[in-house]
Amino acid sequence: DFPLVASLLESIGLDVDFDLSKLHQTDHGVKKDVLFRNLTQNYHPFQAAFDSFVRKVCVPHMASKLEDCNEIYYQSFPCLRMILPDEFSIGPHADVAYGHHPCSVNYYIPVTKQTGGTSSSLFLESRPGSEDWHPLFDPTNNNNAAVYGFVRHFAGAICAHWTPVNKTTQTRVSMDFRLIAGRMFQQLGLDGGKLEGGQRDVYREREGYYHKCCRVEDEDGNNSWEREGP
After folding, report:
1. Complete DSSP assignment for the chain
2. Are strands 210-217 and 161-163 parallel, antiparallel or unpaired?
3. Neighbour count for residue 52 (Cβ, 10 Å)
4. Residues 64-116: pLDDT tens digits?
């Protein structure tokens, strides 16, 4: 129902049946910058599919966990990661260290199947500071395998997480993005408040980084989530 991979391939200029896990075996693997440039020039197909997926799957999921939630902000375009074999992605961090809202919730989608034990999985801690590292997906568990079609969420703003060097023989492709409940979005001042070391949300300062959507009920009582603005 949500052609995320097909639309991504269209936007980056690859055939719709291209296997992204084999990206490193082609000239495209050493020209990732070209693929990302293609994406910036032809992002509409992918963004349309992504936006629909977020509003119809992720936003209702978050709202179901909250009381009287009728407004949610979501990252308007996901972080897309293409990690070739033997490449490193990012070390342990919590997203607040990069200026993200502490109440934002991370959603993570594997675009390619993550194989080779846990060497290609994202690791995280169960609570802030615990450092009890465990994989977000477990390739040895069929009910929790990192394959396209699964999505996981976690408190990446305050819980440290990281990915190891890709020691598999396949390219690891994934996307991640953040959602914030409407009532939380305005609770943090953009300037971090008056206290020394106050958390400053640099991403809310950037117009267009987040979209706002609101719950809408039709005459039959059916709910949908509609984006405000373009």
Report:
1. ---HHHHHHHHHT--TT--GGGGGGSGGGG-HHHHHHHHHHS-HHHHHHHHHHIIIIIHHHHHHTSTT--EEEEESS-EEEEE-TT---EEEE-GGGGT--TT-EEEEEESS---STTTTS-EE-SSTT----EESS-TT-GGG---BTB-EEE-TTTS-EEE----SSS-EEEEEEEEEEHHHHTTS-TT--SSTT----TTTTSTTSEEEEEEEE-TTS-EEEEE---
2. unpaired
3. 16
4. 999 999 999 999 999 999 999 999 988 999 999 888 888 999 999 999 987 65
In this prediction the pTM is: 0.90
* End-to-end alpha carbon distance in the chain: 23
Residues in the chain: 230
Residue 126 structure tokens: 């169960």
User: CA-to-CA distance for 223 and 215, rounded, in angstroms?
Assistant: 6
Q: Which of 125, 104, 228 is nearest to 178 (CA)?
A: 104
For residue 172, how far is the Cα from the chain centroid?
A: 14
Q: How far apart, in Å, are the Cα atoms of 117 and each of 23, 40, 132, 160?
A: 20, 33, 18, 21
pLDDT digits (tens, 9 = 90+) for 146-163: 566 789 999 999 999 999
Distance CA 29, CA 21 (A): 10
Closest CA to 172 of 7, 22, 17, 16: 22
pLDDT number for residue 92: 94
